[in-house]
Specification:
The protein is of the alpha+beta class. Helix content is 25%, strand content 41%. It contains four helices and 18 strands. Strands 1, 2, 3, 4, 5, 6, 7, 8, 9, 10, 11, 12 and 13 form a 13-stranded mixed β-sheet that branches. A three-stranded mixed β-sheet has the order 15-18-17, with helices on one face. α1 packs antiparallel against α2. The N and C termini lie far apart (63 Å).
């Protein structure tokens, strides 16, 4: 903005005598350089101050990658394919911000703090607080999926009233906390063992899930999308899974490229 101001001044000075115009313009340019120098000094200091006030550690996985880590409080955090989180522990809370993807959280005892710090997971739709528990959180498009396997989790939606999910319950909710309650399925966490386990899942949903673990575009034609598939599939080789589909379903798998795959009727 300062440099644009100097250019405007230069344009207005165009009709003045050259000596007078250049003197005024040089003063404007010196003022611009002072402002830019001040910004160059202050901006890094401001960023450092921000990082000291908000200490965060970022973790991410690539497509097809799974990673498990132990956080500073002893919590086990499993990150599924194409997942990104920010971990921010301070004196008041232990916060995991799920920016995308899916995590399995097995809470630790937090023995490093004399003050009880709640463990929370934030998503686009709200805040989840663990009540001594093991639970799965997935950031879907416009919704958060929460499955509780042990203990309980308190949900505080961004705009709606709070509620608590107990072990064995699952909820996919929006920013108002609205969604369908269903039984939690342990098989949904088998990606931690490198497996995709499905039971009577429509093919279109199966390929959508499988597509999370491989780069590119994986789809099926509408006439085969309703076909049901069951089994436990090893995610380390998604091409082998696709190659096996014609053995159990009346479909064919066409590769336009390695990254553009279509399943259609045989």
């Amino acid at each position: 903005r300062a440099w644009q101001k100097a250019l405007r001044v230069q344009a207005r000075l165009g009709m003045l005598p050259q000596q007078l115009a250049m003197g005024t313009l040089n003063r404007e340019r010196r003022q611009v350089m002072k402002q830019m120098l001040a910004l160059a000094i202050v901006a890094p200091l401001g960023y450092v101050g921000y990082r000291q006030l908000v200490p965060q550690t970022a973790y991410a996985t690539d497509v097809g990658q799974h990673e498990q880590m132990t956080l500073a409080d002893g919590t086990l955090l499993d990150m599924n394919t194409d997942t990104a989180v920010d971990v921010d522990f301070d004196a008041q809370q232990r916060l995991i911000n799920l920016r995308r993807g899916e995590v399995l959280v097995d809470t630790g005892p937090d023995t490093h703090s004399t003050f009880h710090r709640p463990l929370r997971v934030s998503t686009e739709q709200g805040l989840l607080e663990a009540l001594g528990t093991r639970f799965l959180v997935r950031q879907r498009e416009g919704a958060t999926q929460l499955a509780v396997f042990q203990g309980a989790v308190r949900i505080t939606p961004a705009r709606g009233p709070g509620q608590t999910l107990d072990a064995g319950q699952q909820l996919t909710f929006d920013a108002w906390g609205q969604g369908a309650l269903a039984p939690a399925r342990e098989q949904d966490s088998q990606w931690t063992r490198g497996q995709l386990v499905v039971d009577e899942m429509p093919l279109r949903e199966f390929l959508s899930e499988l597509g999370r673990y491989r780069p590119g575009w994986l789809r099926c034609q509408p006439e085969v999308g309703h076909l049901l598939i069951s089994g436990a599939f090893q995610l380390k080789n998604t091409d082998a899974i696709l190659a096996a589909l014609p053995a159990t379903l009346a479909v064919q798998v066409d590769y336009r490229t390695r990254y553009w795959v279509t399943v259609s009727k045989r």
